[in-house]
Fold these 2 entries.
Entry 1:
Amino acid sequence: MYRVKVYVTLRESVLDPQGNAVKNALHSMNFNEVEDVRIGKYMELAIGKTDRNVEEIVDEMCKKLLANPVIEDYRYEIEEVAVK
Amino acid sequence: MKFAVIVFPGSNCDVDMYHAIKDELGEEVEYVWHDAQDLSGFDGILLPGGFSYGDYLRSGAIARFANVMKEVVKAADEGKPVLGVCNGFQILLEAGLLPGAMRRNEKLKFICRPVKLKVENNETMFSNKYDKGEIITIPIAHGEGNYYCDEKTLEELIANKQIVFTYQDNPNGSLNNIAGIVNKRGNVLGMMPHPERAVSELLGNTDGLKLFQSIVRSWREAHVTNS
């Protein structure tokens, strides 16, 4: 089976109000070296045996549901793990 | 005219919508559950506000894959009026029936209060009872109403007069003060403000009633002889 980690963040061109609020909070704590904060989502998927190409499936799921391509970017890591 | 109010798990403005149609507008209306397979008996489709599927993942993201949405797409393709309010608007965006997406409100707060809107286009089937440029007061209640689309889409929205309502005093950071847009064909309207909460003299505001009356007027002109 596969363990898949999916990361979804707002696209660079889209203002992230949450990220900005957190950045300002960090600045007020004197972490002035912080230049940017982007808040996103992290998902873990366990995918069982399949005849299809796993990367293809994950990409399709991201496009159709897990991310909204109008405002979000996504990336993923796929790891094959042995079934116990 | 017969309306369907689509009810998803987590919808919470369905009763207001039903009441607006039945008691204030005086037309036929039924609740339709999210797994319904057939909307052919209805003349107009209403997607109410709320938090369908708990707003999990993104507002409207999961509702968009509910069974009934295939039928909503079909109704839209047939030219029937489809109105999505608040969460209903978010669902229409996720479903691709309208362009763009919603972001968190600029100030990150859930905002619940009446706002002033300007009727930018009064030549749609949802706005023909208003005057062009009319200022109306309609309540909003949302945390994610900060409309976004890319520049090319915005140019198209403007060129095709798809922006129907704008905020007079932008509450949420929405691009170009957009409060409500229609699709190119003009039969699908999404808006964040709640017209169904502004239909009763008793509750002090009837500015939303004309929106529903506009739908009925367009429908009568198209479907009833001697109307």
Entry 2:
Amino acid sequence: MKHKTFFWFFLPTALAMFLFIALPLTSIVSQSLHTPHDQVLVVVESCDPFGCKSETTIDHEASKQIKEEEPKGKWVGFQIYTDRNHLAFKEVGELWENKTNFFDFVSSLNNLPFYKAMGFTLTYVIVVTPLVILFGLIIALAVNSLHRHLKGLMVFFSLLPMIVTPLVGSLILFWMIDSRGIIGSGLQELFADPNLSLKASTGLTWITLIVYGVWHSAPFAFIVFYAGLQTVPQETIEAAMIDGATRFQQTIHVIVPHLSPLVAFVALIQLMDNFRVFEPIVGFSASAHATSLSWIIWNDIGQEIRLMSSAATTSVLTIIGVIILLMPVLIRTWREFNPEK
Amino acid sequence: MTSNQIKRPLGLQLLIYGFVLFWFILAAFPFIWTMWGSFKVELDFFSKGDWTNVFSGVRTQVVYGKSFTGAGYEGAWIQEEFWRAFLNTAIVCVSTVVISLTLATLGGYALSRSGFRYSFWLLIIALVFRALPPITLVSGYLQPFYDWNVWGTLPTTIIVLVAINQPFTLWMLHSFFQTIPKELDESAKVDGCTQFQAFRHVIIPVMWPGVITAGLFSFLLAYNDFAVTALLLSQENQTMVPKIASFMGTTQTEGNIMFAVAAVVSSIIPLFILVMFFQRQLVSGLTAGAVKG
């Protein structure tokens, strides 16, 4: 295709992505480096027969003028990045100096909002991703050995947890684990503890969210692996059988290696999706015990006075996180594209 | 695969059936339970004393004289005007799908037919954009949208959703168009067609399977979105998902949690229908990127 034709074909989608993804990106970077202007205050002294009073008022004229001169706000550089609500250099430094041991230091980081969110987000990504892959693989192997008619039915029902709106899916589970809901009261009965609540403690809330994450994403891994299983070479299996491999050995040494490119694919998608974990925290009303990077942004924007600079700063930090997460993939593609310089 | 192997030992067979049953319950039961419960009163759905109340509907019988009631749906759809949110969702989803497919079909086709280096880079940029959580972009939208006075309206949200959808749809259609042999449009060009005519007369008639699959996924993305729609739409323009979220804030105090349950079930029904009719396309879409590696 000629450059010119390519240009015209690609222009609409490029324009959409440029205007609504690339430009907002530059806009959040700029917002994260500015804060709104302070109001200009003037002290007016008013004297009457009973004496003089000085009054502080807002000079609207002057405030407006400053706003017009610098519409982006006051330049603060990286100040927002290092404040207490974000990277909190000062606070972390103090904690490091006053620490008694390393674990103590890590747990005290939990009091800083950004590190608290980072802690949950990373835990979620690290725990959910491998569990999804493992669980998806087991479901795929199990369903694949069923009768033909049952397979279709299972695929249909398996798609549901994945396809349902994340917020709606988490609400459904939230109502079930409510202490009056079926799972919540069932667990109370099981452990004979009428006060047991999955929402009360941080540990249980984290486990709930992780279980939700696996429930929501395992179908995706299942579908991908299930499709891969249909293409496993029959000859290799037979050869392994003749060589005396047990069923388990066949699975480990033939089927799993055959699926390994798919594992990489599922892992990549899952890393991207789990890093943005957000809706379940809203759905499970779990923000007291677990916050994520996306959730802090949401919380900042949703305030009465929208904390745009703060939200923009967290956004930039999140994006840096995403890029670090994607780095291995990007480097690999780069190498494939530029072999042997 | 395993069907023509030596017969499985009974223990393994039982283990497999047991596991499949376990997964089936895990995947399907929450939906069935909530759908059933949405026709009950709150004290039945959340029955602390005796969970079988949900099946017998004891309290529902006390209040309404029968064991099923549509009160939750009536409250949500009429009293809380959930129908408005439903209509908004329909408008947003249909427009988003149509626009994003139009743009991405052209773009994806161009990418698949251009062997130049920049098309590779464009795909990589799209991959990075795909990885960005949509909510990180929202604070970039709000200020300009306030300034231009377009915040809160449906068209604004549609355009934003289209743009956020683009990277994914582009990738999907790109890999689909690569499966259509190049010779097809090359030969049309030899016969004197321009590139666009070749696209119009040769590619469009054969592209529908891929476009339908990509359309399904961009529908799901728009339908399931919470972050963008909740922050960019004003109260009266809300779509279903933010509306449900706002139920959570207000209804709990009024004891009308069943409104939210009914709204949640109403929002799942379209997805059920979608999966029922398009199961094959969904599965092929999920695996399209993967199998090719």
